[in-house]
Design the sequence.
């Protein structure tokens, strides 16, 4: 590619021209190539320039003669389309570019794919301001990266979420090193005796600027940016270490750690679990791994295989959020599990909703035949607890028994709660 890299003002100038080409619609397609810095340090800057030139040549060939392909950064290109017939045309162009970029390229002796993200914004539909148009394409390209889709068209509704996710993504990668993560522990009791059997570890992130961030929000981001194995490793070790701090009287209590669908695709996961148990000298039966039913269903055969191997190490397996996945009797029998956790959504309305009661009772009957423990989670009142016991749930968890608590508070709760030790 012969063109030199445009500076930001030159780029905005070109966008002004695009915007002024009204009444015809225009689109800005922003293409970011990732990982080239690394390739540059291994194979040299010339190799990278060659890659970009080759890709640009192919892209140009796929565009219309009056579309403009420009270089807006060392690893960034833009396409300006002035004569848009409709939005579909912009998507079509982005799709064609993505297909070219998906083709592996030769680098030295190897052939590999260059990861990329593409964001598309429209004028005048979305804005008549060049800076805004660029910002929209930028946000859309971030969305393309986070969602791992070849391209994204800017969408006003996504703006806020994506901008915040972007902050989360950068900061989350350093959260462990900066000691911003902690675990809360939520008690789990046996329903007939009221005896405490253990606690579930729930991850907390204390962001220095944004305050507490919910796991439901940051775990999907961690999965996307590939740091979930690190977080799970941190969680396993922290939970097993803190379990030891609960004291002698609590040495029989188990701890449950939530694992992500991605952990089940990682061959090293089983080794990590064994190593963590070894480091903290913990009998495997005192560790429960909770995995949601829906993540199991992503690749059932391989999940079953990994769960079987974990169980043969002696670790307990709990199927979380049960009832929300694609349960079918056919696979129910083969589930390598010790425990089913009935999803909170069935528990909340159990007193009023006959259907929910029916579902819980059906799950309990099936689980009993398979000799599985059944946990009701999200138990919020005495009355709900009583009904669940009637229905046959043998383990109970929820705000009514105890909220998730930081380690210090959980330790105090253990010391004060003489009941659970002797009941
Ligand atoms: P989950 O595993 O289903 O965890 C139970 C969630 O329900 C927790 O939310 C807990 O605080 C909340 N909860 C417990 N009892 C009650 C109750 O009586 N009423 C109500 N309304 N809520 C109750 P939390 O801590 O926000 O965690 C949300 C989800 O994030 C978890 O759902 C789990 O899927 C995930 N998560 C949390 N920590 C980890 C972790 O360390 N690793 C992984 N992979 N996922 C985690
Ligand atoms: Ca759980
Ligand atoms: Ca759950």
Sequence:
């Amino acid at each position: 590619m012969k063109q030199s890299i445009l500076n930001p003002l030159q780029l905005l100038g070109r966008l002004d021209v695009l915007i002024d080409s009204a009444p015809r619609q225009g689109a800005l397609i922003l293409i970011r190539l990732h990982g080239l810095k690394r390739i540059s340090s291994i194979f040299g800057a010339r190799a990278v320039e060659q890659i970009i030139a080759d890709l640009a040549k192919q892209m140009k060939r796929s565009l219309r003669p009056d579309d403009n392909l420009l270089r807006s950064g060392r690893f960034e290109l833009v396409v300006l389309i002035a004569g848009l017939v409709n939005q579909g045309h912009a998507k079509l162009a982005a799709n064609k570019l993505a297909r070219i970029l998906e083709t592996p390229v030769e680098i030295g002796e190897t052939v590999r794919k260059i990861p990329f993200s593409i964001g598309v914004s429209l004028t005048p539909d979305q804005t008549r301001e060049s800076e805004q148009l660029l910002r929209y394409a930028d946000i859309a390209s971030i969305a393309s990266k986070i969602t791992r889709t070849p391209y994204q068209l800017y969408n006003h509704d996504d703006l806020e979420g994506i901008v915040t996710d972007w902050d989360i993504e950068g900061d989350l990668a350093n959260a462990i090193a900066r000691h911003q993560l902690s675990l809360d522990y939520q008690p789990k009791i046996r329903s007939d005796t009221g005896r405490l059997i253990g606690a579930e570890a729930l991850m907390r992130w204390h962001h220095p600027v944004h305050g507490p961030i919910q796991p439901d929000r940051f775990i999907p981001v961690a999965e996307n940016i590939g740091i979930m194995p690190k977080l799970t490793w941190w969680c396993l070790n922290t939970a097993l270490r803190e379990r030891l701090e609960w004291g002698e009287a609590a040495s029989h209590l188990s701890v449950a750690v939530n694992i992500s669908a991605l952990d089940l695709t990682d061959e090293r996961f089983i080794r990590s679990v064994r190593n963590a148990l070894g480091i903290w000298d913990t009998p495997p039966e005192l560790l429960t791994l909770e995995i949601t039913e829906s993540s199991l269903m992503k690749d059932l055969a391989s999940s079953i295989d990994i769960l079987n191997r974990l169980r043969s190490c002696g670790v307990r397996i709990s199927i979380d959020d049960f009832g929300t996945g694609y349960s079918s009797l056919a696979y129910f029998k083969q589930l390598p599990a010790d425990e089913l956790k009935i999803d909170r959504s069935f528990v909340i309305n159990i007193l009023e909703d006959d259907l929910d009661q029916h579902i819980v009772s059906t799950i309990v009957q099936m689980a009993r035949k398979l000799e599985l423990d059944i946990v009701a989670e999200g138990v919020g009142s005495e009355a709900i607890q009583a009904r669940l016991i009637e229905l046959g749930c043998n383990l109970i968890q929820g705000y009514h028994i105890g909220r998730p608590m930081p380690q210090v508070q959980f330790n105090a709760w253990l010391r004060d709660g003489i009941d659970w030790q002797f009941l």
